[in-house]
Design a protein that fits this description.
With about 220 residues, this protein is α+β, with helices and mostly antiparallel strands. Helix content is about 60%, strand content about 10%. The protein is built from ten helices and four strands; from the N terminus they run βαβαββαααααααα. It has a four-stranded mixed beta sheet with strand order 2-1-3-4, covered by helices on one side. The chain binds glutathione (GSH). The site of glutathione has 12 residues, from α3.
Length: about 220
């Protein structure tokens, strides 16, 4: 099977698929595009105009959760539960992880303080829900037990970005179970290696370019 992942270098949703592909040891090609200068061919293959897109022997898949489930069903050890109810719950938490990513991006890119604060509060509330869930079934060490799941792949890029911020937008002490999970997850080799080269410089550079309130406060030139 020939796999081509269409990527924007800093996209956390693309990174979810990179983690899954690498965890399963599946070879793939990557084509990078720039979101501020989209090639015409991308419009043809991406109905929502978003990355990731995965080309599978020329056929197109879009949406990171769908791409990851396809990869999971096609290669190696399963990263979702065999039990239908548990699997549905895992899918729900993956969707929840996307809401957390959008709240985080809102908090660090909103043009003004009020917008940034509102998104930060939203993220705090979401993490409160996550903490209550995880306190019931603590990570061991991953979300669903001893092996990496698609929920871990969905949250890891979020945690890496939260930890990379010069000034935290979360009070981690209020979410100790999530903190333990997050700290363990970012140390996982497949997660660490999924970060694009130069991430430490590129991530703050991207935030400065967006010129939101957070960057003006915490990432001066
Ligand atoms: N729900 C999508 C979200 C993907 C997404 O938002 N990707 C961003 C880059 S990180 C994107 O392509 N944005 C382009 C745009 O919104 O115009 C998924 O899970 O794949």
């Amino acid at each position: 099977m020939q796999l081509e992942l269409i990527s924007f270098k800093l996209c956390p949703f693309v990174q979810r698929s990179v983690i899954t592909l690498n965890h399963k040891g599946v070879p793939f090609d990557t084509t990078f595009i720039r979101l501020d200068d989209l090639p015409d061919w991308f419009d043809e293959i991406s109905p929502l105009g978003k990355v990731p897109v995965l080309k599978v022997d020329g056929a197109v898949l879009f949406e990171s959760a769908v791409i990851n489930e396809f990869l999971d069903e096609s290669f190696g050890e399963r990263m979702l539960s065999d039990d239908a109810l548990e699997r549905a719950q895992q899918r729900a938490w993956i969707e929840f992880g996307s809401a957390c990513l959008f709240a985080m991006f809102g908090a660090i890119t909103a043009p003004e303080e009020a917008g940034s604060t509102a998104k930060r509060q939203e993220l705090t509330k979401l993490f409160g829900h996550l903490e209550r869930q995880m306190a019931k079934v603590p990570p061991a060490p991953f979300f669903s037990g001893a092996t990496l799941s698609l929920v871990d792949a969905a949250f890891a890029p979020l945690f890496q970005r939260l930890f990379a911020l010069p000034e935290s937008i979360l009070d981690w002490d209020t979410v100790p179970t999530v903190k333990r999970w997050a700290e363990r997850l970012v140390e996982e080799p497949v997660v660490r290696d999924s970060l694009p080269e130069g991430f430490d410089e590129l991530f703050p550079m991207m935030l400065r370019k967006q010129n939101g309130w957070y960057a003006r406060q915490h990432l001066p030139e």
